[in-house]
Amino acid sequence: MKILKSISSGILPCLLLVFMLSSRAEIVNAQKRISFGIHADPLVGWFTSENKKVVLNEGARPGFNFGLTFNSYFTDNYAFSTGLSLITAGGKLIYNDTVTMALNSAVKVLPGNDVIYSIKYLSIPVGLKFQSNQIGYITFFTDLGIDPKFVLGGKADIPLMEIKKESASAELKDFNLGYHVTAGIEYSLGGTTAMVLGLTFDSNFIDITQDTGDQPIDKILHKMLGFRLGVNF
């Protein structure tokens, strides 16, 4: 009995050690299959119209996209991607007819006046990430997906009418849906940490404007091209 007790007393600590090591290995393996990241993307935004007879794009405006990313890998090279982004972007439109816009008050905008928008979005992108095997320190990746967007606010400038930073929220739809395409490289900094460099393109599927009152029926899409700067952990 003493021999059995001594054997069992020796086996139990060994089994406990094996269990702890295997549990730790599983945790480490799980951590490798999940990555978090942050990014800060300078961008340019512009509008396109499907009714160019009455409203035209008048140029791009600078903006910024700051956000968090989350990737859950289901194989070594493929992952579900999501995150949260705060986007400030804009663009310029010019109408060929007189239109009434709901800014701080109702404003009649004459033909030929530039209307400069600045819009803030909360975006929750959902997509798929595809990446290569690591080559040296570099991994190539592409991320494709859809972007539900909530408009947090909007401002409008009309320089020729001396209108500056008036609220344009009534002119914008509260919700929009778009898509994104991001491609670039991840440069390993050691361990699971990597610097991210790339390009990202974003566009809406549906009209961002309300088209109220005497405004022409059109479809204004907001497009953005950004330079991805980030870090993954």
Please, could you describe this protein's structure?
- By secondary structure, the protein is mainly beta.
- The protein has 2 domains: 1-32; 34-232, Porin, CATH 2.40.160.
- The chain has 1 helix and 13 strands, in the order αβββββββββββββ.
- The protein has one helix at residues 2-32, and strands at residues 34-49, 55-57, 61-73, 78-95, 99-102, 106-109, 114-123, 126-131, 138-158, 163-167, 175-190, 193-204, 220-232.
- The strands form 2 sheets. Strands 1, 2, 3, 4, 7, 8, 9, 10, 11, 12 and 13 form an 11-stranded antiparallel sheet that branches. A two-stranded antiparallel ribbon has the order 5-6.
- A hairpin with a 4-residue loop joins strand 3 and strand 4 (78-95).
- The longest helix has 31 residues, at 2-32.
- It is elongated, with a radius of gyration of 26 Å.
- The N and C termini lie far apart (53 Å).
Which keywords apply here?
Porin, disordered N terminus, 13 strands, elongated, mainly beta, 61% strand, 2 domains, eleven-stranded antiparallel β-sheet
CATH topology tier name of the largest domain = Porin
Do you know the CATH architecture of the largest domain? Beta Barrel
What is the overall number of helices? 1
> What is the total number of structural domains?
2
Q: What's a concise summary of this model?
A:
The protein is mainly beta. Helices cover 13% and strands 61% of the residues.
Itemize the secondary structure elements and their pairings:
Layout: H1 2-32, E1 34-49, E2 55-57, E3 61-73, E4 78-95, E5 99-102, E6 106-109, E7 114-123, E8 126-131, E9 138-158, E10 163-167, E11 175-190, E12 193-204, E13 220-232
Antiparallel strand pairs: 1-3, 1-13, 2-4, 3-4, 4-7, 4-8, 5-6, 7-9, 8-9, 9-10, 9-11, 11-12, 12-13
